Amino acid sequence: MQRRDEVNRKHERLRGLLASHDAPALLLTQTRNLAWFSAGADASIPVDSDAGVWSALVTPARRDIVTNNIELTRLRAEEQLEALGFGYQEYAWHGDAPKLPPGTLVDTQPEVADALLQLRLVLDAGEQERCRRLGEETAAALEEAIRTARSGDSELEIAARLDAACRRRGGLAVVNLVASDERIAQFRHPLATQKGMQRLVMIVVCNRKWGLVLSATRLAHVGPLPPDLRAKAQKVAQIDAAAMLATRPGRSHAAVFRDIQDAYAAQGEADQWRHHHQGGPAGYKAREIIVTPGDESPVQAGSLYAWNPSIVGCKSEDTILVGDEDFEIITAAGPDWPTIRVEQAGQTVMRPGILEL
After folding, report:
1. Of 88, 253, 288, 309, whose CB is crowded by the most CB atoms within 10 A?
2. What is the rounded CA–CA span in Å between residue 42 and residue 60?
């Protein structure tokens, strides 16, 4: 009933979208929009495609799944979308989909896509609870994978363990980055290679489940941390905490970004933000928006943010849920993970340290 109530609330918002465009219907085709509207159903078969293998046709009075006969049996047996108030429009896999009413909106149209983005940004109570569950699973998968890393392991082997750890929990690592030793300092987006790890490894995941995508990063080192690496971890923890504390409802993204720039400067790393994006609102994409200087759109309560500050050789990243007065780190490190305690503006923020293997 809770999931159906969530879908009903979202249908009401789509009625408003239809009314604002004086349109008879809306066709949702993108996996992110289908997962959002259905409260978590998965429309992806090729996982690298934005387009779903089924669609949803929404009118003021109805919501129908438009699908070929390949998908229909599984949808009825496993997604149980009828219980959420959906009907079905079936067509043969070798035939044409049903014709749309004249004037139907499609979610790939730029104006419609932007309107749906705004609807996705603020999460329903059910979505927030799913995010908390996914956050725990994401941190557990990430930390499980990195704890097994040993000198001589290839980055690809470590990435495979991360894929498996996410899959065992029902998720999918839509971004899976692994860098070891000098590659951490060389590349901000390090695709895993055959290179063997020696002392230091960083793994990054964007983990998708129920359509929601949460992001986090962890680092581990074989043996005691060198002083310079410990100092870098302290710096990025300070910057990351500043970003989180700056993300308050009603503030503009531009104001948050200025605080992030100031935090870099305070750590003696004023230009490092220029070498990689700093993140932004998350949800049904790893980043629904990548925040840039001058973005005046506001932070909203009920939204997810994943900031990812980095300096040469180190990075800090988790996903937060913004509340009315505070934020919640939903991919927080596990209880036996080393942490860095950051005190800023009278508040304490715990950031993950670097694990000594």
Report:
1. 309
2. 23
Any alpha helices (H) in 148-290, and if so which ranges?
155-168, 182-186, 227-246, 253-266
The Cα–Cα gap between 351 and 328 comes to 12
Q: How far is it, in rounded angstroms, from Cα 128 to Cα 86?
A: 23
Residue in 91, 40, 93 with CA at minimum distance from that of residue 64:
91
Mean pLDDT by runs of 10 across the 357 residues of the chain is 95 98 98 98 93 97 97 92 96 94 97 98 98 98 97 98 98 98 96 98 98 98 97 98 98 98 98 97 98 97 98 98 97 97 95 98
What b-and-e string marks burial along 234-253, b requiring 16 or more CB atoms within 10 Å of the CB? ebbbbbbbbbbbbbbeeeeb
Euclidean distance between CA atoms 244 and 190, whole angstroms: 24
CA 285 from chain centre, in angstroms, equals 5
Q: Given the structure tokens 């129908």, which residue do they identify?
A: 64
8 Å CB contact between 56 and 38: yes
Lookup: tokens for 243: 């970003």
- Any residues with CB less than 8 A from the CB of 109 and at least 6 apart, and which? none
Q: Is 204 exposed, middle or buried (0-12, 13-18, 19+ CB in 10 A)?
A: buried
User: In whole angstroms, how far apart are CA 72 and each of 13, 39, 85, 311, 338?
Assistant: 27, 18, 16, 49, 48
Nearest to 174 by CA among 206, 140, 198: 206
Report whether 36 contacts 28 (CB < 8 A): no
How does DSSP classify residue 273? G
Sign of torsion over alpha carbons 345, 258, 350, 170: positive
